[in-house]
Amino acid sequence: MGVRRPLAAVLAAVAGFASPLVPLTVAASPAHAAPAGNRDVIVHLFQWRWESVAEECESTLGPNGFGAVQVSPPQEHVVLAGEGYPWWQDYQPVSYALDQTRRGTRAEFVDMVDTCREAGVKIYVDAVVNHMSGTGSVGSGPGSAGSTYSKYDYPGLYQSQDFNDCRRDIADWNDKWEVQHCELVGLSDLRTSSDHVRDRIADYLNELVGIGVAGFRIDAAKHIPEADVQAILSRLDDVHPDWGGGRPYVFQEVIADGTIGTGSYTPMGDVTEFQYHRDISHAFADGSIAHLTGLGGGLTPGDKAVVFVANHDTQRNDPILTHADGARYDLAQKFMLAHPYGTPKVMSSYTWSGDPRTGPPMDADGTTRPTDCSADRWVCEHRAVAGMVSFHNAVAGQGIGPSVTDGSGRLAFARGSAGYAAFNATSSAWTRTFTTGLPDGTYCDVANGTFVDGVCDAPTYQVSGGRFTATVPADGAVALHVEALTECTDPDGCGPGQPSAGDDCSAVAARFDATVTTWYGQEVRVVGSIPELGSWNPANGLRLSTDAAAYPVWTGQTALPEGVPFEYKYVKVNPDDTVEWEHGGNRWATADGGPDCSQTFTDSWRE
Ligand code: LAG
Ligand code: CA
């Protein structure tokens, strides 16, 4: 077809198009493509402002395939000016109002959830529901949103009868009843056996689900009787349809001990596996990693375990390996992302000197400052491991294949024929040839950079005959996987959606046929990850056209490189140049010209 008449002229001829312009919702443009596939990796953006989380979703988390952000608690909290606004204010709720925390307003929170959803990233809320505030550091408030309160009285929410009767600290940690009914570090312990309390907690969590929150970390879950956790979770609504509906994802903070194990909480959801944290951290701290193919053996079943190298408590109270350890710690987080056991939770920290109570970078009134990864005390160590998230996603479902070691500090292993990773927890480089099940081609080393929109910003390695030779840096890694190929040289191809070998077309004559209902004056374009489709800039996208006979099918043609995977979406462009993106994730394709070097993409606008 290829009709290129002035649009107004074309559309004026179409019956029903004389209607006035209707204002459109302008959805945020995906600055980058969101990788498809399995996305379950969680990053804890500890203490980040909502607006900073939103920016990170767009710039880094979505493009690299992170699945979710654990955000710090969003409910109203105590404000402890006298103690210099410590980070742990958040863990003392004053009400379930989302109006104002040190990290921002309710509107900013909502905007974050929406922005992250557009980027394909879920928000998991740290739900502090075992307790309210403590004595000592608090008086009557007001809390961060202005509420007054006292330890056992939160007007309009909880009164004295809503707290357990054991109004003292947990003393005997071998007594399960005490652990669950007395006070954790002096925090007033909610009577979670009561319907009133269960309903209030469920109201709070359902408000978040209504905003689009997709999951929860249940803080101090071990201190809430199992039946009470069950009763609260059973009251929750299903998550937003954009996430496929279904139950919210839940992981429970259970620091297992001889009295309470993770097993009593797995019926309700996932659990934190602290033994994994200790095992991986000691192994990397000691440079003794050769045995780690078996990591996770004997622990909570991997499909129920959330795993981490450090969390916000361990990095302060019981540090084994943390951001302060630099490359070796990054290496451990990379290993976690390469290894099949558990759902990985990557830590993102800020530094403090001396006093571990120190809050995040903040203004004089205790309001948290926006994150600038190159300033203040933000570490942003999740960025150093971002490429490994793509490895984790690409090898999902593949077991550990053949492994090699060299002394106790070096270990390399395959993940089926989808990936291969080598880790060197020693102070000298490790050069050797590795035998993999990977198809032949050029691979982006995602342990040392990222692979986004087909662009590799890391060293590349040539796999030939399934083998590659690498020098794994001291305290470093090399990781290759089949979704980060820059060129495929394997005669059998490199898998669906990947560059294919033996490209026989110099270019593919590509045609897009899209069924799109438009208003008079609107234009339709194809915008995508490759320059031919505007590199995600709608202004440079491929313009489609239609006419009275063809409408609502819009058509356009361009030449595309064969065998290069790309992503795209359709957009409607209004006369004032505002842009409406179609909904849903990015579309994926690889031009494959076939014998006549042409290809047609037939699509329908996704509402
Ligand atoms: C958690 N998981 O079960 C959190 O991961 C952990 O960070 C929380 O403790 C704890 N449970 C309660 O939600 C943090 C700090 C504590 C702090 C507490 C409440 O690690 O140090 O306690 O939050 O803000 C602070 C003081 C205590 C005092 C208490 C009550 O440090 O000395 O007794 O407040 O006033
Ligand atoms: Ca309790």
From TrEMBL:
Gene3D superfamilies: Glycosidases, Golgi alpha-mannosidase II, Immunoglobulins. It catalyses: Endohydrolysis of (1->4)-alpha-D-glucosidic linkages in polysaccharides containing three or more (1->4)-alpha-linked D-glucose units. The keyword Hydrolase applies. SUPFAM superfamilies: (Trans)glycosidases (SSF51445), Glycosyl hydrolase domain (SSF51011), Starch-binding domain-like (SSF49452). Its EC number is 3.2.1.1. InterPro entries: A-amylase/branching_C, A-amylase_C, Alpha_amylase, Carb-bd-like_fold, CBM20, GH, GH13_cat_dom, Glyco_hydro_b. It comes from the Bacteria. Residues 1-33 form the signal peptide. GO terms for molecular function: alpha-amylase activity; lyase activity; metal ion binding; starch binding. Residues 502-607 form the CBM20 domain. Its cofactor is Ca(2+). Keywords: Calcium, Carbohydrate metabolism, Glycosidase, Hydrolase, Lyase, Metal-binding, Signal. GO terms for biological process: carbohydrate metabolic process. Pfam families: Alpha-amylase, Alpha-amylase_C, CBM_20. Residues 585-607 are annotated as: Disordered. Residues 597-607 have a biased composition (Polar residues). Belongs to the glycosyl hydrolase 13 family. This is Alpha-amylase. It comes from Thermobifida cellulosilytica TB100. The lineage of its organism: Bacteria, Bacillati, Actinomycetota, Actinomycetes, Streptosporangiales.
